[in-house]
Amino acid sequence: DIRWSDFGFPGRSGKDSTLWIGSEGANTPCHLDSYGCNLVLQVQGRKRWHLFPPGDTSFLYPTRIPYEESSVFSKVNVANPDLKHFPKFRNTTAHVVTLSPGQVLLVPRHWWHYVESIDPITVSINSWIELDADHEARVEEAITRMLVCAIKSAENPSDGDLWLNPTEVEATSHEINLQYLNKAVSAYFKCQKASVSKQAHPSSTGAEQRTSTSYKRKKREVGCEPEGYRLLTHEFGFSTFKAEKLQEIPFGPHLIQVLPQSQETSLWGVVAFERDGRDLLHENEEGHFGKLHCTRKQLVMSNDCEMPAHQMDSDSSPNVSQTALSTNDLLECLVNPHVISLVARLLLERTRV
């Protein structure tokens, strides 16, 4: 019954969406989505969203363990931050909004978000909107998957390291991951070529001819998404915007800007959440799953990552109990978003030559 066409996305409906059902205290650990932007409709109950701009990435201590395609997690429990181990979190700028039934939230590209249910039953529906930048992001995700699966699969499976999120049903083989990388690179150049061709031969009905499809979990289906997309503006008028123009949207009676809030009142003063809280999700009609995050994975991240291996004693000598580097320590360096971005650019340049 959802008509995302009301927001300027013709043909996009509930089939291109994910249904989320949660109980009070259910929460999604803080993370960013590698692909697209996000439209979220609250149907029942209320959810509180803690959002952080992309510029806060280094303050949120990003990690890819546990691994999930297109999700970069924060090692910080933003509801109860450990400032001793994560002191840079003080530099973040939190945007906190409570989403009520009937309201729709736009989550811009690469904005970090932590989501919690604050009513006994919450129901929401979202749809991920593809953007031009996703083509390079898919190359980066393919590189990340190849490295994580290759290195972690080589470890002893009996060590109990839950490095794969439940939404990732299995660690794919190196051969499959290599095929995935090649498809992502091919799609990147295909869309670059199409973009150049479109600029040379502009179409008067380009916006009407674009098709919007949900692709968040279509790991093996790499294609060419639309160049632009349309957003709801003042008095339900429609205009075409590029991703970088989002900040220029005029706010009116139907668009409410989410403003920064002080961390003391909006973030750190929030009550503690249930430890076993989780969000459930519904498989959509096309058979693609959305995310299922729960605090258990957050605890795994804390066990693996909160104590840096290079921690020193007061006499500035290495602490013997902390000098044993794990595979995860190495992976966190190898698949750091900044490193992966650089590797992807070098790889694309090599392929272009």
Automatic annotation (TrEMBL):
Residues 199-219 are annotated as: Disordered. It holds the Pfam family Cupin_8. InterPro entries: Cupin_8, HSPB1-associated_protein_1, JmjC_dom, RmlC-like_jellyroll. Residues 1-144 form the JmjC domain. Residues 199-214 have a biased composition (Polar residues). Keywords: Cytoplasm. This is HBAP1 protein. The gene is Hspbap1.
